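DM from R.C. (forwarded with permission)

"hey, sorry to bug you on a friday — could you get me a structure for this? deadline for the figure draft is monday and I only need the backbone to look sensible"
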Amino acid sequence: MSSDSVYANWQFDTLWRDADYSVCRMRAPDGSASKLAKTLHAHAPGAAALERLEHEYALRDKLDPQWAVCPLALARRDGRPMLVLSDPGGEPLANRLGAPMPPVRFLPIACALAAALAQLHQRGIVHKDITPANALVDLERGVARWMGFGIASVQPRERQPLALPQDVAGTLAYMAPEQTGRMNRSIDLRSDLYSLGATFYQMLVGALPFSATDPMELFHCHLARQATPPVARVPGLPAALSDIVMKLLS
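My reply, with the result:
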């Protein structure tokens, strides 16, 4: 792991932040290089958060820069662990959501996301945390890559044991029902397709398929409810796009 001094004078600009991590674009002092960095907020992070950074770095040889943001090194920043990543340009898709995305803008980036996920699956990797925050996109060029491989699996299928919501790895709002550990079904490539459907839904509608905020209620929604079709929420949306999203969520 590289020491603090390696990137001490680099400029860091935050692109995305959640409860545990920040994703930053960092630039060399002379402007000659740009990389991404995934850093932990806590000076003494829990074992699980550290393991996810290490796991993502361990997958570096299985990832391709054509469809993934590739890990380069494990380092430290201000004493905190940091994963250094390639910087292909773009920003997290989550930054561009909040209102319905016009189909003419949705289609190129949705196709790029689907193609990148197909490449990931061909490598035998199940991402398990497909979300807009883990999609690095350039909307103007229609280019997309996946990142955030901290809980990705190289097993063709696995079972999620029954656990409390806070102990289930992944992002609840986009989580496939089988990832909750509350149904008799294994996690496999189709789990990522469900999460891709939830991501597409948010892109087209400007809101998530389910508005629940309580974790147990979200579990129930994914397990037992059917989302309102996007075409019923966005007047004029092509029915074919709505049908594709609902198929992914089925």
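R.C.: lifesaver. The beta strands are 11-17, 21-27, 34-40, 71-77, 80-85, 91-92, 135-138, 143-146.
me: no worries. The chain has a mean pLDDT of 88.
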